[in-house]
Design goal:
This protein has 286 residues and is of the alpha/beta class. It has helices at residues 91-102, 106-117, 126-131, 137-147, 161-166, 173-184, 202-205, 215-218, 225-235, 249-257, 268-279; strands at residues 35-38, 52-54, 60-63, 78-81, 188-193, 211-214, 242-246, 261-264. The protein has an 8-stranded mixed sheet with strand order 2-3-1-8-7-4-5-6, sandwiched between helices. Mean pLDDT is 82; it is low at 1-7, 14-19, 21-31 and 40-72.
Length: 286
């Protein structure tokens, strides 16, 4: 069962049976095609200009940020944010700092994560079970430690393993300020996070979100479509009126398939510009 809300945290969304969302179709019709915004460095189309382009699924890709290309009816009224890698330092930075500090061979960590988290990973891997709250943190620490080795071939201490990893995870103040500016302009906001059992810094997130959906508390994880429907239900908005910001492409693609606008996050400036385009709000820091 979910833990009680911490200071500064909106009331957590309570665990529901996944069957509650089983009747809902994976694709939800929307009045306007959603917009997928991808930083130029990640876009694989070849063009010298910044234009929206239809994608196979009927959505649009915005290369760069062009305010005039977003129809008024497509602008959003709610923004849903991932936590790790969006509101915090990137996962790569965190892992690099952790493996360096503990002299862990990064290749052993990468191999385990690829096996447990890639698109080809079978269901029910240790990461999947951890994120849905079905595997205790202590058990996951043991499973992960078994796969890790130090640079000189030694074993890695399992006790407190995830705690030591996430000690290198720092919030990104520009992103918190961005969420705050959205709220000040009346945009609905929510946090949607796949949890690895780490404690969230709720005192730093105070007042930023109307609701928080944490995977381990609701028994669902991204990219399961049901967890996106859950946060949309909590906000009371249609998919076509919401934008989802995440740093993981599979999670972004799942949200887009439901009709949400999406932003593949790489840094605060590009996400700020993209959200300004979608909301028609002055979001740049002053």
């Amino acid at each position: 069962m979910p833990k009680s809300a911490s200071r500064g945290r909106p009331g957590p969304v309570r665990r529901r049976s996944p069957a509650a969302y089983a009747h809902q179709p994976d694709a939800v019709p929307t009045p306007e095609p959603p917009t997928q915004i991808i930083p130029r460095a990640l876009d694989n189309t070849s063009s010298a200009d910044n234009r929206t382009r239809p994608t196979p699924g009927g959505a649009y890709r915005l290369v760069g940020t062009v305010l005039s290309m977003i129809p008024v009816t497509a602008r959003v009224e709610a923004a849903v944010f991932d936590f790790g890698g969006v509101l915090t330092t990137s996962g790569r930075e965190m892992i690099r700092a952790w493996t360096s500090a503990e002299r862990i061979d990064p290749g052993t960590f990468s191999a385990a994560i690829k096996e447990w988290m890639s698109r080809q990973a079978p269901s029910g891997t240790p990461v999947h079970l951890l994120e849905t709250g079905e595997m205790p943190v202590e058990e996951f620490n043991e499973r992960l430690a078994e796969r890790l080795r130090t640079v000189d071939g030694g074993k890695v201490e399992a006790d407190g393993l995830l705690g030591r990893l996430f000690a290198h995870n720092q919030v990104e103040q520009p992103m918190l300020d961005l969420v705050r500016r959205l709220r000040e302009h009346g945009t609905r906001t929510a946090l949607l996070s796949n949890s690895w059992g780490a404690a969230y810094p709720w005192h730093l997130l105070e007042g930023l979100f109307e609701c928080t959906v944490i995977s381990g508390e609701v028994g669902l994880r991204k990219p399961d479509p049901r967890i996106y429907r859950l946060v949309l239900d909590e906000l009371g908005v249609d998919p076509g009126r919401a934008v989802f910001v995440d740093d993981a492409r599979p999670n972004v693609e799942a949200a887009e398939a439901l009709g949400m606008h999406t932003i593949l996050h790489t840094d605060a400036p590009s996400t700020t510009a993209a959200l300004a385009a979608l909301t028609a709000l002055p979001l740049e820091p002053t």
